[in-house]
Write a structure and sequence with these properties.
Largest sheet: none
Radius of gyration: 13 Å
Strand content: under 5%
Order of helices and strands: HH
Oligomer: single chain
Structural class: mainly alpha
Shape: elongated
Number of helices: 2
Number of strands: 0
Low-confidence stretches: none
Distance between the termini: 33 Å
């Protein structure tokens, strides 16, 4: 796993990537609730990153 940079954007990117990989593992083993929770975590990280980027453009 790569080291997180100093900023929150880097943390959000890493969280989204990790959640995606963990969700694949959960799917493979049919852990449906974990898959769902990890998908929600990825969506939350993606949305927060988009919101931060929108604020930067304003």
């Amino acid at each position: 796993m790569r080291q997180v940079g100093s900023g929150p954007d880097d943390a959000l990117v890493l969280i989204a990537a990790a959640a995606t990989e963990l969700a694949k593992l959960a799917q493979r083993h049919k852990f449906r609730v974990l898959d769902h929770l990890l998908a929600m975590a990825r969506l939350e990280a993606d949305e927060r990153l988009r919101a931060r980027n929108r604020r930067k453009l304003s």
